[in-house]
Write a structure and sequence with these properties.
This protein is mainly alpha-helical. It contains 4 helices and 2 strands.
C-alpha cells in the first residue's frame, strides 16, 4: 500500500507541514496530524517503551530534546519508529 516508509509517516500525519508559495526558502511547520489520532497515540505509547529499552534511541532522543524540546523529540522518535 505504501511505496516508501516516508509515505506511511505522511499517512499518519508525522511529517512537517509546508505552506510555500514559490521555489524560495522551504519553511517547514508543525506535523500535519492528518492521520488517525488513535494510530498516533498508539505510536506514542510504543515510542515510550522503545525509549526505555533501546539505549541508542534514547541517546538520540536526548540530543534532540536538548536542542528542540521534548515534544519535538517525541515526534521525531515516533516518525523514526514509523519509518523503520
Amino acid at each position: 500500500r505504501f511505496p516508501r516508509a516516508r509515505s506511511l509517516a505522511n499517512y499518519w500525519g508525522l511529517t512537517p507541514g509546508c505552506r510555500n508559495s514559490g521555489e524560495s526558502n522551504q519553511r517547514l511547520g508543525r506535523i500535519t496530524k492528518a492521520g488517525s489520532n488513535t494510530a498516533r497515540w498508539l505510536l506514542a505509547q510504543v515510542a515510550y517503551q522503545a525509549l526505555r529499552k533501546d539505549r541508542l534511541l534514547r541517546e538520540w532522543y536526548k540530543r534532540i530534546k536538548r536542542r528542540r524540546g521534548s515534544g519535538v523529540a517525541r515526534g521525531a522518535v515516533m516518525r523514526k519508529l514509523a519509518t523503520t
